[in-house]
Amino acid sequence: MPSKFTSWTLLCTLLLALAARGSDISEWSTLDPGTQQLLAPWRDGWAMLGASDRGRLLTNAKHWQAMDATAREAFLRRSSDWQELAPAERSRRRARYAAWQALPPDEQARVRAAATQFAALPAAQQAQLRARFAAMDADQQRAWLLGPSTGSWIEQARALFPYVPEGERDATLRMLQALPADARAQLMALAQRLPDDQREQLRKQMLETDPAQREALLRQRMAR
Amino acid sequence: MAVTATTPGCARRGPRWLRYSLIALLILLLAALVGSFFWKPAFLGIDTSSSHGFEALRAREPATTLSPTAAALGGADFELLDDPDGERIARDLDLYAWYAMGANAPGTNANPPPAPPPESTLPETPAPDADSMEGTSAQ
Fold first, then answer.
1. Is the pLDDT of residue A73 over 70?
2. Per the CB < 8 Å rule, is A172 touching B105?
3. Residue B93 maps to a domain
4. Do residues B103 and A129 make contact, with C-beta atoms less than 8 angstroms apart?
5. B97: domain range?
6. Domain count, chain B
7. B62 and chain A: CB distance < 8 Å anywhere?
8. Which of A4, A94, A102, A128 is the most exposed, having the fewest neighbouring CB atoms within 10 Å of its CB?
9. Comparing C-alpha atoms, which of B122, B97, B106, B103 is closest to residue A139?
10. A125-168 pLDDT per residue, tens
11. From the CB of residue B3, how many other CB atoms can be counted at a distance below 10 Å?
12. What are the structural domain ranges in chain A?
């Protein structure tokens, strides 16, 4: 038999939940008429949409309302061209755009500057560079999707730590990215000297160590 | 002591009438199967004169169509389409990143790594297959 306290707690939680739901700013009736008109096709099913879908639709509607007529026309043209693409190509471009969005702002700025420089090159030189890049194997090319900084050392890291369990790959990558360049170089140099099992131990130890203590750990290991 | 032996390969056969009945049944079923390709029973309501099935469905308009604006708003690629510059750079992101490092950074075939890793240590490149969940269906 639940105690009185438990019953009151449950009742209060229920009332709070109902109040929170009632004050949900994304309820259809609370949307302004312009947004309601834009999102009219979703009116009947609005209540059944999840919060993330509603949020996405509202954000998109807000962007749309902020565009002028020319921008809207250009957007619809791009949307139409996008639909003409083969599904595999759309998927490829989505993946690349997601990789682009994942880059930190300074890396994005470097890539943007490189793209501008590349576009200014003569066509023959561009073709030559593209051919050189295309000659790399797929893994090497894919590594550059992680950005210029990471792309420059990730291949060496992959060769040194080839058996990273899937669940630890992101953490290992973040650990390596967070290290200053000289510390990362030290780690690579140290790892190269170690047999496979000790190298794996070092990687695990680096992962388990507090990020602020990792450089000290490296110095200590180098001094041995 | 009497021993009853069965010669291998000499199975007991059933009565002759049963065998003939089974053969007749088999012939009847085969004939029905062949006949079904040519004869459509009227009581099943199969009208061969008019088009039905997928062809007819394809010829019809969908029950509801979204306007281009609504389709764009509900599409999963709104953000990408809203950022044409970013999307254009992202198409050649790997090439530009390589070029940003002077196009001579490690990773070219001129200096291959000493031992090619059997398994990538990189996290999977995101490849959302959003075609199957494109947009949010309007109710």
1. yes
2. no
3. yes
4. yes
5. 77-104
6. 1
7. no
8. A4
9. B122
10. 999 999 999 999 888 898 899 999 999 899 889 888 888 898 89
11. 4
12. 89-135, 138-223
How far apart (Å, rounded) are the C-alpha atoms in residues A81 and A67?
19
Task: For residue A43, give both structure tokens.
Answer: 């009116």
The verdict on residue B87 lying in a domain is: yes
Q: Which positions in chain A touch B108 (Cβ < 8 Å)? A: 132, 135-136, 140
Is the CB of B72 less than 8 angstroms away from the CB of A75? Answer: yes
Residue B135 has pLDDT above 50, yes or no: no
| Helix residue spans in chain A (DSSP H) | 4-22, 33-38, 51-66, 69-84, 87-102, 105-120, 123-134, 138-143, 148-160, 166-178, 181-193, 196-208, 214-223
CB atoms within 10 A of CB A209: 15
In this structure, is residue B85 part of a structural domain? yes
Tokens of B61: 């308009």
The pLDDT of residue B59: 75
Looking at residue B138, what is its pLDDT? 44
Residue B115 lies in a domain: no
Cβ A40–B70 below 8 Å, yes or no?
yes
Amino acid at B84: P
